[in-house]
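User: Before I run my own analysis I want an independent prediction to cross-check against. Here's the chain; please return only the C-alpha coordinates and, at the end, one sentence I can use as a sanity check.
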Amino acid sequence: MRVLGVAALTLLLCASCSSPSSPGQATPPPTTPPTTSIPAAPALRVLVVTATTGFRHDSIPAAQSTFASLAARSGAFTVTSTENLADISAERLAATDVLVFALTTGELPFSEAQKRAIIDFVMNGGGFLGFHSATDTLYDWPDYGRLVGAYFKEHPWTQRATVAVEDRAHPTTAGLGANFSLLEEFYTFRENPRPAVHVLLSLDAASVGAQGDFPLAWTQTIGRGRSYYNALGHFPETWTDARFQGQVEAAIRWAAGR
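Assistant: C-alpha coordinates:
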Protein backbone atom coordinates (compact mmCIF):
# COMPACT_ATOMS: atom_id res chain seq x y z
CA MET A 1 0.00 0.00 0.00
CA ARG A 2 2.82 2.37 0.83
CA VAL A 3 4.48 1.60 -2.53
CA LEU A 4 1.24 2.23 -4.38
CA GLY A 5 0.74 5.52 -2.59
CA VAL A 6 4.20 6.76 -3.58
CA ALA A 7 3.61 5.75 -7.21
CA ALA A 8 0.29 7.59 -7.34
CA LEU A 9 1.87 10.72 -5.83
CA THR A 10 4.66 10.57 -8.41
CA LEU A 11 2.17 10.37 -11.32
CA LEU A 12 0.21 13.30 -9.92
CA LEU A 13 3.33 15.44 -9.66
CA CYS A 14 4.35 14.58 -13.25
CA ALA A 15 0.91 15.54 -14.57
CA SER A 16 1.11 18.85 -12.72
CA CYS A 17 4.53 19.58 -14.22
CA SER A 18 3.23 19.00 -17.76
CA SER A 19 0.10 21.12 -17.29
CA PRO A 20 0.01 24.39 -19.34
CA SER A 21 -1.00 26.21 -16.18
CA SER A 22 2.19 25.27 -14.32
CA PRO A 23 4.07 28.24 -12.91
CA GLY A 24 6.69 29.59 -15.28
CA GLN A 25 5.21 27.94 -18.41
CA ALA A 26 3.67 30.30 -21.04
CA THR A 27 0.28 29.45 -22.49
CA PRO A 28 0.32 29.72 -26.30
CA PRO A 29 -2.15 32.32 -27.59
CA PRO A 30 -5.17 31.03 -29.53
CA THR A 31 -4.64 31.03 -33.26
CA THR A 32 -6.92 33.21 -35.38
CA PRO A 33 -7.47 32.16 -38.97
CA PRO A 34 -6.34 34.81 -41.44
CA THR A 35 -9.12 36.96 -42.88
CA THR A 36 -9.36 37.57 -46.59
CA SER A 37 -11.01 40.78 -47.77
CA ILE A 38 -12.87 40.81 -51.06
CA PRO A 39 -12.08 44.00 -52.96
CA ALA A 40 -15.11 46.14 -53.78
CA ALA A 41 -16.16 46.12 -57.41
CA PRO A 42 -15.12 49.31 -59.20
CA ALA A 43 -17.87 51.86 -59.77
CA LEU A 44 -19.65 51.49 -63.09
CA ARG A 45 -19.07 54.32 -65.54
CA VAL A 46 -22.30 55.68 -67.01
CA LEU A 47 -22.47 58.16 -69.91
CA VAL A 48 -25.87 59.85 -70.28
CA VAL A 49 -26.74 61.55 -73.59
CA THR A 50 -29.67 64.03 -73.57
CA ALA A 51 -29.07 65.73 -76.93
CA THR A 52 -32.10 66.66 -79.06
CA THR A 53 -32.71 67.90 -82.59
CA GLY A 54 -36.51 67.50 -82.36
CA PHE A 55 -38.94 67.96 -79.51
CA ARG A 56 -37.22 68.80 -76.23
CA HIS A 57 -38.77 67.45 -73.05
CA ASP A 58 -39.08 69.63 -69.98
CA SER A 59 -38.14 66.57 -67.94
CA ILE A 60 -34.52 66.50 -69.16
CA PRO A 61 -33.18 68.40 -66.11
CA ALA A 62 -35.10 66.04 -63.83
CA ALA A 63 -33.61 63.05 -65.65
CA GLN A 64 -30.09 64.44 -65.30
CA SER A 65 -30.67 65.15 -61.62
CA THR A 66 -32.05 61.64 -61.05
CA PHE A 67 -29.01 59.96 -62.57
CA ALA A 68 -26.69 62.14 -60.47
CA SER A 69 -28.58 61.52 -57.23
CA LEU A 70 -28.80 57.76 -57.81
CA ALA A 71 -25.04 57.66 -58.40
CA ALA A 72 -24.33 59.64 -55.23
CA ARG A 73 -26.74 57.59 -53.15
CA SER A 74 -25.65 54.13 -54.27
CA GLY A 75 -21.95 54.68 -54.86
CA ALA A 76 -22.21 51.86 -57.39
CA PHE A 77 -21.69 54.04 -60.44
CA THR A 78 -20.52 57.42 -61.64
CA VAL A 79 -22.41 59.52 -64.18
CA THR A 80 -21.34 61.93 -66.87
CA SER A 81 -24.15 63.76 -68.67
CA THR A 82 -23.53 65.35 -72.04
CA GLU A 83 -25.23 66.97 -75.01
CA ASN A 84 -21.98 67.32 -76.90
CA LEU A 85 -22.04 64.56 -79.48
CA ALA A 86 -18.28 64.85 -79.88
CA ASP A 87 -18.08 63.05 -76.53
CA ILE A 88 -19.26 59.87 -78.28
CA SER A 89 -16.18 58.15 -79.66
CA ALA A 90 -14.54 54.74 -79.57
CA GLU A 91 -12.02 56.07 -77.06
CA ARG A 92 -14.68 57.52 -74.75
CA LEU A 93 -16.82 54.41 -74.95
CA ALA A 94 -13.80 52.27 -74.08
CA ALA A 95 -13.92 54.00 -70.67
CA THR A 96 -17.69 53.51 -70.33
CA ASP A 97 -19.76 50.63 -68.98
CA VAL A 98 -23.27 51.83 -69.78
CA LEU A 99 -24.40 54.29 -72.48
CA VAL A 100 -27.77 55.96 -71.87
CA PHE A 101 -29.96 57.84 -74.34
CA ALA A 102 -32.39 59.71 -72.07
CA LEU A 103 -35.12 61.76 -73.79
CA THR A 104 -33.08 62.17 -76.97
CA THR A 105 -34.95 63.12 -80.15
CA GLY A 106 -34.36 63.60 -83.86
CA GLU A 107 -31.59 62.71 -86.26
CA LEU A 108 -28.59 63.32 -84.06
CA PRO A 109 -25.69 64.10 -86.41
CA PHE A 110 -23.39 61.22 -85.57
CA SER A 111 -20.61 60.43 -88.02
CA GLU A 112 -20.30 56.95 -89.47
CA ALA A 113 -17.32 56.36 -87.17
CA GLN A 114 -19.42 57.31 -84.13
CA LYS A 115 -22.25 55.04 -85.21
CA ARG A 116 -19.83 52.17 -85.65
CA ALA A 117 -18.34 52.90 -82.22
CA ILE A 118 -21.77 52.73 -80.55
CA ILE A 119 -22.71 49.43 -82.15
CA ASP A 120 -19.26 47.93 -81.49
CA PHE A 121 -19.47 49.08 -77.86
CA VAL A 122 -22.68 47.12 -77.26
CA MET A 123 -21.76 44.15 -79.43
CA ASN A 124 -18.56 43.73 -77.40
CA GLY A 125 -20.29 43.72 -74.02
CA GLY A 126 -21.31 47.29 -73.24
CA GLY A 127 -24.71 48.20 -71.83
CA PHE A 128 -27.28 50.45 -73.52
CA LEU A 129 -30.28 52.13 -71.90
CA GLY A 130 -32.97 54.14 -73.67
CA PHE A 131 -35.68 56.18 -71.98
CA HIS A 132 -38.95 57.56 -73.37
CA SER A 133 -38.14 59.45 -76.59
CA ALA A 134 -34.96 57.47 -77.21
CA THR A 135 -37.31 55.67 -79.62
CA ASP A 136 -38.07 59.04 -81.29
CA THR A 137 -34.44 59.26 -82.34
CA LEU A 138 -32.31 58.31 -85.36
CA TYR A 139 -35.04 56.93 -87.63
CA ASP A 140 -32.59 56.99 -90.54
CA TRP A 141 -30.19 54.61 -88.80
CA PRO A 142 -31.73 51.10 -88.80
CA ASP A 143 -29.00 49.63 -86.56
CA TYR A 144 -30.05 52.07 -83.86
CA GLY A 145 -33.66 51.00 -84.24
CA ARG A 146 -32.61 47.41 -83.57
CA LEU A 147 -30.50 48.55 -80.62
CA VAL A 148 -33.33 50.44 -78.90
CA GLY A 149 -35.96 47.92 -79.99
CA ALA A 150 -38.62 50.02 -81.73
CA TYR A 151 -39.43 53.43 -83.21
CA PHE A 152 -42.05 55.77 -81.77
CA LYS A 153 -45.35 56.05 -83.63
CA GLU A 154 -47.63 58.23 -81.50
CA HIS A 155 -48.78 58.98 -77.95
CA PRO A 156 -52.56 58.65 -77.98
CA TRP A 157 -52.97 58.67 -74.19
CA THR A 158 -51.62 61.24 -71.75
CA GLN A 159 -53.40 60.35 -68.56
CA ARG A 160 -53.28 58.21 -65.46
CA ALA A 161 -53.33 54.56 -66.49
CA THR A 162 -52.35 51.11 -65.27
CA VAL A 163 -49.00 49.58 -66.15
CA ALA A 164 -48.91 45.79 -66.07
CA VAL A 165 -45.72 44.12 -64.82
CA GLU A 166 -45.20 41.14 -67.12
CA ASP A 167 -41.93 39.88 -65.62
CA ARG A 168 -41.94 40.32 -61.86
CA ALA A 169 -38.69 38.35 -61.45
CA HIS A 170 -36.46 40.74 -63.40
CA PRO A 171 -34.19 42.99 -61.29
CA THR A 172 -35.71 46.14 -62.80
CA THR A 173 -39.25 45.22 -61.73
CA ALA A 174 -38.53 44.00 -58.20
CA GLY A 175 -41.09 45.32 -55.75
CA LEU A 176 -43.47 46.75 -58.35
CA GLY A 177 -46.11 44.10 -57.80
CA ALA A 178 -48.46 42.91 -60.53
CA ASN A 179 -49.25 46.45 -61.72
CA PHE A 180 -49.05 50.10 -60.78
CA SER A 181 -50.82 53.33 -61.69
CA LEU A 182 -49.00 56.28 -63.22
CA LEU A 183 -49.72 59.60 -64.95
CA GLU A 184 -47.73 59.41 -68.18
CA GLU A 185 -47.63 60.05 -71.90
CA PHE A 186 -47.99 56.50 -73.16
CA TYR A 187 -46.32 55.56 -76.43
CA THR A 188 -47.23 53.23 -79.21
CA PHE A 189 -44.65 52.07 -81.76
CA ARG A 190 -44.44 51.66 -85.51
CA GLU A 191 -44.01 47.94 -85.04
CA ASN A 192 -44.78 45.89 -81.97
CA PRO A 193 -41.35 44.95 -80.55
CA ARG A 194 -42.63 41.90 -78.66
CA PRO A 195 -41.45 39.26 -81.17
CA ALA A 196 -37.83 40.44 -80.89
CA VAL A 197 -37.51 41.54 -77.24
CA HIS A 198 -38.30 40.39 -73.71
CA VAL A 199 -41.19 42.53 -72.48
CA LEU A 200 -41.08 43.69 -68.84
CA LEU A 201 -43.91 46.23 -68.69
CA SER A 202 -46.96 46.86 -70.85
CA LEU A 203 -49.91 49.21 -70.81
CA ASP A 204 -53.16 47.79 -69.47
CA ALA A 205 -55.20 48.70 -72.54
CA ALA A 206 -58.50 48.57 -70.66
CA SER A 207 -57.28 51.34 -68.33
CA VAL A 208 -57.23 53.74 -71.31
CA GLY A 209 -60.36 52.36 -72.90
CA ALA A 210 -58.49 50.59 -75.70
CA GLN A 211 -57.71 47.13 -76.96
CA GLY A 212 -54.39 45.74 -78.12
CA ASP A 213 -50.86 44.93 -77.03
CA PHE A 214 -48.74 47.90 -75.97
CA PRO A 215 -45.28 47.02 -74.54
CA LEU A 216 -43.65 49.79 -72.53
CA ALA A 217 -40.33 48.37 -71.28
CA TRP A 218 -38.17 45.55 -72.53
CA THR A 219 -34.72 44.02 -72.67
CA GLN A 220 -32.70 42.27 -75.34
CA THR A 221 -29.23 40.90 -75.94
CA ILE A 222 -27.13 42.55 -78.64
CA GLY A 223 -24.02 40.50 -79.33
CA ARG A 224 -22.31 40.22 -75.94
CA GLY A 225 -24.05 43.35 -74.67
CA ARG A 226 -27.39 44.16 -73.09
CA SER A 227 -30.03 46.68 -74.11
CA TYR A 228 -32.88 48.02 -71.96
CA TYR A 229 -35.64 50.43 -72.97
CA ASN A 230 -38.37 52.08 -70.89
CA ALA A 231 -41.03 54.26 -72.53
CA LEU A 232 -41.88 56.09 -69.31
CA GLY A 233 -40.30 59.42 -68.35
CA HIS A 234 -42.31 62.15 -70.10
CA PHE A 235 -43.01 64.15 -66.96
CA PRO A 236 -40.46 65.38 -64.39
CA GLU A 237 -42.63 63.74 -61.74
CA THR A 238 -41.96 60.34 -63.28
CA TRP A 239 -38.23 60.81 -62.77
CA THR A 240 -38.74 61.67 -59.09
CA ASP A 241 -41.06 58.69 -58.54
CA ALA A 242 -39.31 56.12 -56.33
CA ARG A 243 -40.77 53.26 -58.38
CA PHE A 244 -39.27 54.63 -61.57
CA GLN A 245 -35.95 55.47 -59.93
CA GLY A 246 -35.70 51.89 -58.76
CA GLN A 247 -36.11 50.73 -62.34
CA VAL A 248 -33.44 53.15 -63.56
CA GLU A 249 -30.85 52.08 -61.00
CA ALA A 250 -31.52 48.38 -61.50
CA ALA A 251 -31.36 48.82 -65.28
CA ILE A 252 -27.87 50.32 -65.00
CA ARG A 253 -26.67 47.38 -62.95
CA TRP A 254 -28.39 44.84 -65.21
CA ALA A 255 -27.04 46.37 -68.42
CA ALA A 256 -23.53 46.25 -66.97
CA GLY A 257 -23.92 42.60 -65.95
CA ARG A 258 -24.08 43.32 -62.22
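Sanity check: The domain at 44-255 is CATH 3.40.50.880 (Rossmann fold).
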